[in-house]
Amino acid sequence: MDDNKQKLQQGLSKLGLTLSTVQQLLLLEYVALLKKWNSTYNLTALRDESTMISHHVLDSLTLLPYIEGTKTLMDVGSGGGMPGIPTAICRPDLQITLLDSNTKKTSFLQQAVIELGLTNVTVTGGRVEAMHDKKVDVVTSRAFAELADFITLTKHLLNENGYWAAMKGVYPYEELEHVPDWVEVVKVEKIEVPMLAAERHMVIMKPKS
């Protein structure tokens, strides 16, 4: 456990994040829950906590600089809660909705939110296109769909000044070519995830006014 604690602390400092001891413990507890329930709910292909810290927690937290000043966020296709749960732990002021159509995964998410005491998180089951009662500042996802599909399926979820933050692996050249012409690609930035030897990019997009 101490190794994991150290790995998390090193990763946070490389990301330039200062978290309280309680927040750090919650992130480690979240990883323990992922590991505990993984065989039941099939949440991740990863098996050990150390890898989950880099591939899931630190990877999720690269979202934080892109959502400063926002009040509401929806994590579409949240799966095991990435990036929504680590984000919720670090931003208790942010109201976060975790959306997934897989009932096993939403069962896990409910469980995790209760055990971690995340009062700023709502878990919703069902298909994204059926969500019509909520609009948010930021719609995010990690490996949910290609950019064009992501935009089309979630455009009704953005509020007046809302935008998309899509977390991608390698630079999505082809996907960017298919972004609809009513959408502005604000920026595509390469992200360095500590202790993760894989390419990551953040794609920020918004509807043209």
TrEMBL record:
S-adenosyl-L-methionine binds at residues 77, 82, 128-129, 142. Specifically methylates the N7 position of guanine in position 527 of 16S rRNA. It is an enzyme of class 2 (transferase). Its EC number is 2.1.1.170. Keywords: Cytoplasm, Methyltransferase, rRNA processing, S-adenosyl-L-methionine, Transferase. The gene is rsmG. Gene3D superfamilies: Vaccinia Virus protein VP39. Coiled coil: none annotated. It is found in: Cytoplasm. The lineage of its organism: Bacteria, Pseudomonadati, Pseudomonadota, Betaproteobacteria, Neisseriales. Signal peptide: none annotated. This is Ribosomal RNA small subunit methyltransferase G. It catalyses: guanosine(527) in 16S rRNA + S-adenosyl-L-methionine = N(7)-methylguanosine(527) in 16S rRNA + S-adenosyl-L-homocysteine. Belongs to the methyltransferase superfamily. RNA methyltransferase RsmG family. GO terms for cellular component: cytosol.
